[in-house]
Write a structure and sequence with these properties.
Strand order of the largest sheet: 3-2-1-7-8-10-9
Oligomer: single chain
Distance between the termini: 70 Å
Number of strands: 10
Shape: globular
Helix content: 25-40%
CATH architecture: 3-Layer(aba) Sandwich
Order of helices and strands: HEHEHHEEEHEHEHEHEHHE
Radius of gyration: 24 Å
Number of domains: 1
Length: 300
């Protein structure tokens, strides 16, 4: 009678460990992929949808965030089909420090100047703009938006004085967008340096500084580096190209801050409260010397 003695294989345990490890790695990577959605863009401060329209045309899914209830309604009308089709999600709330409600200051002449910061509303009025009136709106924190919609490939932020709330929130997140852009501070050098400190803490090391007055002259790459090839002309108040489609070379942190030194010198001389602003009353000087506003684009 033949008998068999079952022995523990010397290779079985290592093989099991290998497959357990491989499965864990696969599961871990799938979780990361869920966090950073390469087909998703956030338009934080969507305004009238100037940028949202471009991102949708490029084939991305978009989360548009707009605090101004009057503008949010116009977004619903303009993008009705995208909203019903699922390519667009609209968050009609202000990004704020805490959830609940917050005063949102609606400028009476420039809808792009809407802000939750009363000092910004006052500054805009003093700089020659119209006064703003507070409207009570829903407030949401940026971490809550990330929990609901995931981490985007590109995060565009333009919310008049509250941009850093989004950057600060990302510090506590395990994943980051591939690309970010913010409207840089134009009044406080300390605030500008703080923006770069946040970028550094988030792991962003390369930058492009984009003059927003030149957006309407930007040309789309053919073929496009990001998203689908489209024909598009940028509307006024657009943020323009992003990511790998941006013209020019990427700057180091030091190079970007050095460039901003020259920009701030121009602000100090000819900006909204510049000491030589009276010179801009002469039209030919205004065209040459009047400083614009800039976006900082960042990537790893």
């Amino acid at each position: 009678m033949l008998t068999f003695k079952l022995q523990r294989s010397t290779t079985a345990e290592p093989m099991c460990l290998f497959f357990n490890f491989a499965f864990s790695e696969l599961r871990y990577n799938s979780i990361l992929l869920k966090k950073m959605n390469s087909r998703l863009i956030y338009d934080v401060g969507a305004h009238l949808g100037e940028d949202t329209d471009f991102y949708l045309r490029k084939g991305f899914k978009v989360v548009a965030i707009e605090a101004n209830p009057f503008l949010a309604e116009r977004l619903r009308e303009r993008f009705r089909l995208n909203l019903s089709g699922g390519s667009l999600s609209l968050v009609d709330a202000a990004i704020a420090e805490t959830a609940g409600e917050v005063d949102f200051f609606v400028n009476e002449s420039q809808s792009i100047w809407g802000t939750i910061r009363p000092e910004w509303a006052e500054r805009n009025a003093l700089a020659g703009g119209a006064p703003s009136k507070p409207v009570r709106v829903k407030a949401i924190t940026f971490p809550e938006v990330l929990r609901q919609h995931g981490t985007p490939y590109y995060l565009k932020i333009d919310i008049e004085g509250a941009d850093v709330l989004c950057l600060e929130a990302l510090l506590k997140e395990p994943d980051r967008p591939k690309f970010i852009s913010i409207e840089s501070d134009k009044r406080s050098w300390r605030n500008l340096l703080y923006e770069f400190e946040l970028f550094k803490g988030l792991g962003y090391r390369r930058f492009k500084i984009v003059d927003q007055k030149e957006i309407e002259q930007q040309k789309l790459l053919d073929p496009a580096a990001d998203g689908s090839d489209v024909e598009h002309r940028f509307e006024p108040w657009s943020s323009g190209l992003f990511g790998n489609d941006l013209p020019g070379k990427w700057l180091t942190r030091r190079q970007a801050i050095l460039r901003y030194r020259f920009i701030f010198l121009k602000y100090w001389l000819f900006g909204d409260f510049g000491i030589l602003r009276f010179v801009l009353k002469v039209r030919r000087f205004r065209k040459i010397l009047q400083p614009h506003w800039y976006d900082t684009h960042a990537t790893t």
